[in-house]
């Protein structure tokens, strides 16, 4: 039977939710309302004077060929990172769920990357795959692979996908492992008694029971790729070479911080927020139908 807490008045429940409400208002609603207000203004680079321009900033955003290029880059980058971070994490979780020698050390080592800041993760991967100084990048060139993420857009995108995937695998791994350990062993044993092999038991029993966890991680990973990979992009490629790794969130920074156009940057951030909200709503509307609770 489900246990519920009962309160005699409104004071204690309000005090309990007040910290979360304060964090949400201060760190989401206030910056979002500020961005919406700034998107209708034209400001000087120092923010000392402003002029109301209506939807002019939004028109300028959609007239830029660079914006559509950043949109395509974001789609490619987010698809690759979401796929590989979920697939690798699920593979590691299925192995960690087995009774292996040294399993605790294996789990601990897999969790460590989550504690690394995105910018630090980007610097680590840049050191490893630097074309002339990297411990892995230099041997690649010696072997004749012509590896240079500083000049080649494809190499730069590969390096970004690797570093962003490595940073997020730990998070997905923890949730997949918890989901696997919550599945009753008796259900899997019943499948084995019926003659189902390991692969068939995974796809017909384990994976459907993991679908709520997979759906949750899909939503979280999409949000991570759209917003939290900024530090990795800035540390690894800075949006280059020649803008080939400039995503939507990095273009918001580049136009606002480096370009000094705060109104245009605010309009892009509002559009990006709408895109992420729409993607999340679509996932809840269509993907959630296939989730088995």
UniProtKB/TrEMBL annotation:
GO terms for biological process: transmembrane transport. One of its GO terms (cellular component) is plasma membrane. It is a multi-pass membrane protein. Residues 71-283 form the ABC transmembrane type-1 domain. It is found in: Cell inner membrane; Cell membrane. Its main location: membrane. Part of the ABC transporter complex UgpBAEC involved in sn-glycerol-3-phosphate (G3P) import. Probably responsible for the translocation of the substrate across the membrane. This is sn-glycerol-3-phosphate transport system permease protein UgpA.
């Amino acid at each position: 039977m489900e246990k519920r807490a009962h309160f005699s008045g409104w004071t204690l429940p309000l005090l309990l939710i007040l910290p979360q409400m304060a964090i949400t208002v201060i760190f989401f609603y206030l910056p979002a309302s500020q961005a919406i207000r700034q998107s209708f203004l034209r400001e000087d680079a120092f923010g000392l004077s402003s002029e109301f321009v209506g939807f002019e900033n939004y028109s300028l955003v959609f007239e830029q060929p660079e914006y559509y290029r950043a949109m395509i880059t974001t789609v490619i980058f987010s698809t690759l990172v979401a796929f590989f971070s979920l697939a690798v994490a699920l593979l590691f979780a299925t192995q960690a769920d087995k009774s292996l020698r040294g399993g605790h050390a294996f789990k601990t080592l897999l969790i460590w990357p989550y504690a690394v800041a995105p910018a630090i993760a980007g610097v680590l991967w840049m050191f490893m795959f630097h074309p002339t100084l990297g411990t892995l990048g230099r041997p690649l060139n010696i072997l004749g692979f012509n590896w240079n993420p500083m000049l080649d857009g494809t190499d730069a995108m590969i390096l970004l996908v690797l570093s962003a995937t490595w940073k997020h695998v730990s998070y997905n791994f923890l949730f997949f492992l918890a989901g696997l350990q919550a599945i009753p062993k008796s259900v899997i044993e019943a499948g084995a008694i019926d003659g189902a092999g390991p692969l068939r038991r995974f796809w017909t029993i384990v994976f459907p029971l993991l679908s709520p966890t997979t759906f949750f991680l899909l939503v979280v990973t999409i949000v991570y790729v759209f917003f939290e990979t900024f530090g990795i992009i800035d540390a690894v490629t800075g949006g280059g070479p020649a803008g080939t790794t400039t995503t939507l969130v990095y273009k918001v920074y580049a136009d606002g911080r480096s370009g000094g156009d705060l109104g245009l940057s605010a309009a892009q951030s509002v559009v990006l927020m709408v895109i992420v909200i729409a993607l999340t709503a679509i996932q809840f509307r269509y993907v959630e139908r296939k989730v088995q609770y």
